[in-house]
Amino acid sequence: MATVGVIGLGYVGLPLAVAFAREGCDVVAVDLDARKIDAIAAGESYVEDVPSETLADVGGRIEASTRYAPLRRADAVLICVPTPLTPNREPDLGPLIDATRALAEVLQRDQLVVLESTSYPGTTREHVAPLLEESGLAAGRDFHLAFSPERVDPGRTDFTLRNTPKVIGGLTEASAERAEELYALVCDQIVRVSSPEAAELTKLLENIFRSVNIALVNELAMLTDRMGIDVWEVVEAAATKPYGFMRFEPGPGMGGHCLPVDPFYLSWRAREFDMATEFIELAGKINQQMPYHCVAKVQRTLNDAGLPVKGSRIAVLGVSYKPGVGDVRESPALKIISLLRELGAEIRYHDSHVPALADFGLASVALEQALADADLALIVTAHPDVDYDLLARRARLVVDLRGVTRSSNSASVVRL
Ligand SMILES: NC(=O)c1ccc[n+]([C@@H]2O[C@H](COP(=O)([O-])OP(=O)(O)OC[C@H]3O[C@@H](n4cnc5c(N)ncnc54)[C@H](O)[C@@H]3O)[C@@H](O)[C@H]2O)c1
Question: What pTM was computed for the model?
Answer without folding.
Answer: 0.93
